[in-house]
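quick q for whoever's on today - can somebody do inverse folding on this one?? i tried earlier but teh output was garbage lol. tokens:
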């Protein structure tokens, strides 16, 4: 019980309380958000999703069939909007053709391989979809997680850090979701704002 990861979870939960994350009404909204959040703030993603809802553009079929310029207009606030619009439409076409439920029901390894085959979907995006949309136990490693791990003396690339979390923690979707959400909120509150002198994890 002395691993710093366990201490980190307890400290973050005590500081911020349960996050009940990912904020979305449907599995497909999670999928859209996971792609749009690349290289941008979550607040911008929320605005983009709101824009898409106003245009009735939050189903695979509606995005797949929409004019690319309409999608770009909705997601402009997320940055790299032309690139993201193309990738979002390709992803939506895949889900529209093959069915969300049929895809998300696949075993983790098969699902991850399929997601990674789609243009613009990397490990973090794929694992976010698996954890928050498919509700399967994979731990998401994002930039905040990597930075915080470095601060508490745990180094490694994406796969190594993911194995560290998954080997240490019970295999639990709610736990993985909550822990990742706590890391994100801490990163936004402290790391992005460079509040290093107020860090509550450096002594974990």
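ok took a stab at it. sequence:
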């Amino acid at each position: 019980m002395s691993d710093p990861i366990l201490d980190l979870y307890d400290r973050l939960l005590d500081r911020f309380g349960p996050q009940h994350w990912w904020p979305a009404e449907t599995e497909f909204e999670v999928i859209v958000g996971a792609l749009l959040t690349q290289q941008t703030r979550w607040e911008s993603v929320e605005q983009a999703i709101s824009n898409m809802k106003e245009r009735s553009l939050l189903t695979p079929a509606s995005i797949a069939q929409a004019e690319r310029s309409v999608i770009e207009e909705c997601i402009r606030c997320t940055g790299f909007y032309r690139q993201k619009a193309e990738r979002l439409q390709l992803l939506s076409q895949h889900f529209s053709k093959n069915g969300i439920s049929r895809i998300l029901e696949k075993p983790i390894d098969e699902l991850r391989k399929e997601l990674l085959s789609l243009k613009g979907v990397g490990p973090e995006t794929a694992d976010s979809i698996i954890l928050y949309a498919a509700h399967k136990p994979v731990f998401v490693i994002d930039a905040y997680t990597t930075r915080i791990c470095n601060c508490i003396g745990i180094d490694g690339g994406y796969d190594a850090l993911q194995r560290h979390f998954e080997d240490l923690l019970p295999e639990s979707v709610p736990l993985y979701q909550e822990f990742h959400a706590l890391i994100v909120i801490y990163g936004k509150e402290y790391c992005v704002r460079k509040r290093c002198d107020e860090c509550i994890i450096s002594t974990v």
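fwiw The mean pLDDT is 94. also The chain has two domains: 4-21+139-198, 27-132. so keep that in mind when u check it
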